[in-house]
Design a protein that fits this description.
Length: 379
């Protein structure tokens, strides 16, 4: 009897709660569904992720970074997910593939993207100049028109200097926001570009591989014309590290929300090794780690790397491993659920407007590094 009692005590210690959900009805809200029906397996991890994001990562002292990979904006997730999260103050800084930013521009320029289905005749699409991304189709002219927009914009005088990618996207966002505001005034259209929304909220957007997108391809063409526009990716490394160091050195916390994996994931997480290993500044790692991915960890690929593995690199604070969640689910399924859950259960936060302070934050990081180097007298 004592053994049975001890077993029950242990069981209740590891239990979150008994599985005994109510029957769902047509009146259930999405937060109710997440809390009452997402109990186990990947659904259970999604519930944990929603709770982690809203109850801890959206704390007043937490700086939230989001990395974006995969073709999210062509599917409309920039409009349906990223714009509302930015406007609610739930995203403080972003690392994105250039492709997501390029396709986001289509919406700012009022170009059409269409739902279709997979398995179409791609030769026929090619003959009719229709581009396909799985079950999304659009006119080839979208690419040509967006290319013309970037070349014309970036030939202008404000772009004739050297930028970090965050500085470049912020300036682009200024013009996209102006286009949206003009269209809204004339036709009562909603804001649709997350790059424009980030400009309005002062949210920095970095691209870890600035040459790996149609935007980079067009900037490369301008370079052949003699353009003075230059992208300095090393400035990105220091600016992104400065954001994290500022959050932590003021007794705040850093939370990372990783959508997919790839280069944006690494660029976001490498901020901590940059601070600790390279600059020699005292730090312990990101406090909160939330990832949604469909990649397996056993292949050794970056996209499937777990927070426990990241901890060995100094990317995640080992004391915070309980506050990490990995959801193995399609991000296009998870993101709308998380967005509605967060907006329904957490009040908007005041935007941090990190873009307004980015230069000063980087100078503080530089001062800390030079002080540390002088103290240790080591290269």
């Amino acid at each position: 009897m004592k053994k049975h009692s001890a077993n029950q005590k242990y069981l209740h210690k590891i239990s979150h709660k008994r599985i005994d959900p109510p029957g769902l009805t047509g009146a259930c809200t999405l937060p109710q569904i997440v809390e009452e029906a997402f109990l186990s397996y990947n659904a259970g991890r999604m519930r944990e992720a929603c709770r982690l994001f809203t109850s801890k990562m959206l704390g007043d002292n937490v700086t939230v970074g989001v990395s974006l990979s995969g073709a999210l904006t062509p599917a409309g997730l920039g409009i349906s997910v990223l714009v509302p999260l930015i406007e609610a103050g739930f995203i403080d800084w972003i690392i994105s593939t250039g492709a997501n930013l390029y396709h986001d521009t289509h919406f700012a320029l009022n170009m059409e993207m269409h739902q279709s289905r997979p398995g179409l005749d791609d030769l026929a699409l090619r003959e009719h100049q229709v581009i396909r991304i799985y079950d999304i189709v659009f006119d080839y002219e979208n690419l040509l028109g967006t290319d013309r927009f970037y070349r014309k914009l970036c030939r202008s005088e404000p772009f004739q200097r050297t930028f970090s990618t965050a500085e470049f996207h912020y300036l682009v966002g200024k013009y996209l926001a102006a286009l949206e505001d003009e269209a809204s005034a004339l036709h009562a259209k909603k804001h649709r570009s997350f790059v424009a929304a980030a400009y309005r909220a002062g949210v920095p957007i970095f691209t870890s591989s600035p040459g790996d997108s149609s935007i980079g391809m067009n900037l490369a063409a301008l370079q052949l014309e003699g353009s003075r526009l230059q992208i300095d990716p090393l400035r990105d490394v220091n600016q992104s590290a400065a954001i994290v160091w500022d959050a932590k050195k003021k007794k705040g916390q850093s939370g990372v929300f990783i959508v997919g994996g790839g280069s944006p994931k690494n660029f976001m997480l490498q901020t901590e090794p940059q601070i600790q290993e390279v600059l020699g500044l005292e730090e312990a790692g990101h406090d909160y780690f939330l990832q949604v991915t469909d990649a397996r960890p056993d292949t050794g690929g970056l996209s499937g790397a777990t927070p426990q593995e990241a901890m060995t690199w100094g990317k995640v604070d080992p004391n915070q491993l309980p506050d990490t969640v990995t959801c193995y689910v399609d991000s296009t399924v998870f993101l709308p659920i998380l967005t509605v859950y967060a907006l329904a259960t957490h009040a908007p936060r005041k935007p941090r407007r990190l873009m307004d302070r980015l230069e000063g934050l980087t100078k503080e990081l530089e001062a800390g590094y030079l002080k540390n180097r002088k103290k240790n007298r080591k290269e």
